[in-house]
């Protein structure tokens, strides 16, 4: 039952069921603790995850590969890579799944070199990688800007391990080239490997075009997605943002009209933070939280401080044709900024903050949070839908490459 709740994204109910089980005197075996750890990781409940860890220690369970893998994944998803590493080092009889989990954890934090080091250690232990391991390696190279290394491992997986590339491997390579600004190479790779029918690779290219401001390939990618009937809300928004950034308001209007005609709805951005066993969720411009007045008052003062430190709003990212001052206001109250402001006013000075977001963190918020970490002398970990960002002393672990 606990595993079933987890598999259906109902983590809080999984934990409630687990607590009920304990009250009824049913012993907590390793298998169920693996599922409970997964629930904590998926929901980002680090304190509950630490309690599960303590439960494992108290009961004297060995960190076998499945349990260690679940605990490594839990700590990683909760923004504590150091704890994940400690569990990994303590694990007995590491199997390919555990090695892959640790490797994926480094990849999600943008630590490509460390991911490659884990891969090399795995090979030295005579553990053969599988398809998922290679996805993790290629993803690590992509997020770390390691183009030559990515090329090497893509060849290695076929020539040494006999693994036939799948859609995810191909997409990692498109992402590798795209993030590095090698858009011609990414486009040619798609065509040369006959993967033009895969919508995901065009979405990846479109996302890179937004970063590198390549309008021609952006139009090509969006046209391909429409042909494949895979132009979802994220793709439309990416294209709309590109038009807005270049002040092409008529094109933006036409695209938004097309979204309405096709009944495509933009997924609202949400950010949340766990404090004292409660989740606090925010959307942009949110005024529903009980402490909204305090949050906005603090955020207004903080943004003034950030500007004094050199922060400048990325008003070019606002997709509406409105005055500059209104654009600044629109950016100021994004959901992640509200969640961070609430975290700061609700915790003791110096307490690290862990924020979770259902979409990709925007460029303006990313820049602002760097300044926030320095202005408040706090570590701020943000987990968006793609990766982790560990902000400290005015810089981010992704090195502005995400």
UniProtKB/TrEMBL annotation:
Keywords: Repeat, Transit peptide. InterPro entries: DYW_dom (IPR032867), E2_motif (IPR046849), E_motif (IPR046848), PPR_At4g14850-like_plant (IPR046960), PPR_rpt (IPR002885), TPR-like_helical_dom_sf (IPR011990). The keyword Cell inner membrane does not apply. It comes from the Eukaryota. Residues 310-402 form the DYW domain. PPR repeats lie at residues 1-28, 95-129. This is DYW domain-containing protein.
